[in-house]
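Q: What does the predicted 3D structure of SAC3/GANP/THP3 conserved domain-containing protein look like?
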Amino acid sequence: MDRRGEASHRGRSSYRGRGWRGRGRGGGRPSPSPPSSTASPAALNPVPSLTPAVPVDDAAPIMGTCPDMCPARERAQRERLRDLAVLERVDGDPARTSLSLAVKKFCRTISSTNVLASDIRPLPVLQETMDYLLHLLDSSEHPFETIHDFIFDRTRSIRQDLSMQNIVNDQAVQIYEDAVTFHIRSHQRLSTSCQDSAASSLCYLNMEQLTKCLLSLYDMYHVLHKCDSHSKKEAEYYSFYVLLHLGCKIHKMIDSLSLWYGQLATPVRRSKEMIFARSLLRSELEP
């Protein structure tokens, strides 16, 4: 395995094995049917558990060796099929891309039992890919919806590669925190144009993935705690789940949120981020 592959599994707080499997490839809680454009974001998923997700299979995690943002095999195939996103094309040619533009697509039907290590990106490459995608978020060369669709799909692919390798460490947590940040920034941009049905659908799908990212991130936090490791941004990212309930008028969900809050670690509950989030929610609920 190359040095990148080795680096992805080093570190004091790294963890591999059967104890965690992220929700990046469709596992975890079932997705609900799309709500109306006025539905509360909190209705997308139930309150998260503070224990890690159970493994979905016993297959040994694969160790990725792909050195690029997109595997060579996929890159060649998508060039041949003219299946390149606008942001991946060289000089606008739908049949031509490059190492610096092509990013691996998310695949719904994939299993660790029939995938090649050369098609999976190790942790350092996944971080580089995430950094590249976040850089695109501020681009003004294309409509925001086009940029959002591209990053939306490619960040799911990053989470999928992490899940297939069963990597949980500080750097993997950083990648998930970056994914959450992307979905939050997208929500802010998309919500201003949610008047038409197409934009409303984008808002819903974005919020759905935001919630899934948060749930997987909380699972990872729990695993890292067992290794005596903590993210410096934990309190901030836990507070985001509280903020998702803004606009919620369902008392049962608010009660469930209160039970979840009571299980959080004391430093998180007392953090300025959590205090601020709860004060916003409380002020909204007051008659």
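A (community wiki): The structure tokens above were generated from the sequence. The longest helix spans residues 197-226. DSSP finds ten helices and no strands in the chain.
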